[in-house]
Amino acid sequence: MQLKGINYDTGFGGATGDRSRVEFDPAAVRRELEIIATDLHCNAVRISGDDPDRITQAAHAAIDAGLQVWFAPFPIDLTPAQLEPYFERCARAAQEIWQRDHHTVLVLGCEMSLFCKGFVPGEVLFERLRNAMDPQAWANFTPETDFTRMLAGLLKQARKNFSGGITYASGDWEEIDWSGFDFASVDLYRDAGNADRYAERVREHTTHGKPLVITEFGCCTYQSAAEAGGMGWAIIDYSATPRVLNGDYVRDETVQRAYFEESMDVFEAQDVHGAFWFTFAGYEAVSAAGPRRDLDLASYGAVKVLDGEKGVRYPDMTWEPKAVFDAIAARFAAGVK
């Protein structure tokens, strides 16, 4: 495996007003990317978010730390008409990073058939998640444009403004024509529904004639989180202020660690080109005291974000490594097949 990576969030949000990362301190960003390189032993980082300026700033710090950058804009709730100017701006920003390191890759969005408007019924993400599997919601809905044609147009435009490799972080349900891309990339979470055929599904994604990169894989930090896979975050009650968990869950960091090791075994056996753990930190999923206040249980982060405290192991940070942090570090330091 050539790319040993992790996702790094610079912040994104949608029409509901929530942000995945509110504070963005340049010194903390630089320090975290140094830790990703030197302590986690990653050689690549997928830097995502909806603000190209934040991604660019983090990308420069990543290159300074010796990391290969996957420049990954993450639009949410944009319409097809809004995506073209957005990605033109992103491609120009990514070109600035490519000029420093020609290994830089541009990721043209993430699971946009669901995260953006016009392809699934619903104005905001939660509505689209609910409607995606509801036949009644589709009864009077017509997609604004053909998704495949739109993505091909975005790729053609990006080639005019960016000189490096280009891919798209697809959802496992999306059928992508990879012929014009440099990598086939998929966010592929193992869960109760696909666990018995997960290796087979990975293998199927290697048949496109392009190097396969797993742009996201991971699970949260509670018992049964592995069965939830990519929906593990849904144990948060988003109607509550402040946010709380929607029930009683048992914290279990060994679940995350085992999920990482078992997934990596599959990826190596299928000879994937690279994989990015999701994610370094869930910045707004703070571990606080009190009933149902430990939101880190619903975080995919390799570190636990603390409630205003400084870490013990990393006294300059407001987070502490979880068990999966050390598993990632050990495996990546040893190298992968």
Written account of the structure:
The termini are close together. The protein has helices at 26-38, 52-64, 80-98, 112-115, 125-131, 147-161, 198-204, 225-228, 253-269, 323-334; strands spanning 3-9, 44-49, 68-73, 105-110, 165-171, 184-187, 212-217, 236-237, 244-245, 274-277, 303-305, 319-321. The radius of gyration is 19 Å and the shape is globular. It has a single domain, classed as TIM Barrel, CATH 3.20.20. The strands form three sheets. The chain has an eight-stranded parallel β-barrel with strand order 1-2-3-4-5-6-7-10, surrounded by five helices. A two-stranded antiparallel sheet has the order 8-9. Helix 7 links the parallel strand 6 and strand 7 (212-217). It is α/β, with parallel strands linked by helices.
Q: Gist?
A:
The protein has 337 residues and is an alpha/beta fold.
Outline the fold blueprint:
Blueprint: E1 3-9, H1 26-38, E2 44-49, H2 52-64, E3 68-73, H3 80-98, E4 105-110, H4 112-115, H5 125-131, H6 147-161, E5 165-171, E6 184-187, H7 198-204, E7 212-217, H8 225-228, E8 236-237, E9 244-245, H9 253-269, E10 274-277, E11 303-305, E12 319-321, H10 323-334
Parallel strand pairs: 1-2, 1-10, 2-3, 3-4, 4-5, 5-6, 6-7, 7-10
Antiparallel strand pairs: 8-9, 11-12
Helix pairs in contact: 1-2, 2-3, 3-6, 9-10
